[in-house]
Every structure is written in structure tokens, then in C-alpha cells.
Design goal:
Blueprint (H helix, E strand, L loop, with lengths): L2 H13 L7 H22 L11 H20 L2 H12 L3 H24 L1
Length: 117
Amino acid sequence: MNPYNYLFYKLTRFLNKKGNNEWGPIYAITILLGWNIVIIYVNCFRITEENSKGGFKYGLIVIVIILFITNSVLFLNKKRQLEIIKRYQNESHRRSRIGSFLVLLYVAFTLGSIIFA
């Protein structure tokens, strides 16, 4: 199981129920991963208000833009979207609940790390 594809699948089921909003899950997965990268980036480089005006922010902006472009290329492909949906669509009820719980845990962890960082 590919966790990245599974996260996209769960976000698609939540944000794109009618099938006409391909950008919603792409933005959501980019924002979630982008926040995680920002938290790790800030903690690894010990970025404070004084040194945040330097080149650190440009590196971070480039990383987030590359992440968005990568997600767009990966998930705007309709054939790939249908393969992902087909792969996880027939999972058992128990497995679906566990997967939903793990995705909610990931989202809660991400939001918690933003609040408490």
C-alpha cells in the first residue's frame, strides 16, 4: 500500500464527492505535506524572527512550489486517479475505518504540530 496514494484517495473521497473538483485534494495534500515540511524545516534550521528574513524563506517557498507541481503532475492524470480509486475502493469495512482513523490522526498531528510548534 502506498500511503501517499491512500492519503490522496481518502482526501478525494472527502473533498471530491461529485467528481468535479480535482484541485481540492491536490491543494489539501500539498497543504498538509507543506505544513509538515515547514515545521521540520523551521526546527532543523532553528529559524527565528531575526534570521527568517534571510535566504531560508526562499528555500522553503521553492520546496513548497516543487511539492505543488509534483502533486499536480501526479494527481491531475485522470487515468492515475481512476487506478488509485479502483485500487482502494473495494477495501473491507474494517480496513476502511482503520485507514480513515490513520488519515484523521495524520491531519490532527499536522494541525497539532502547527499549534504547538
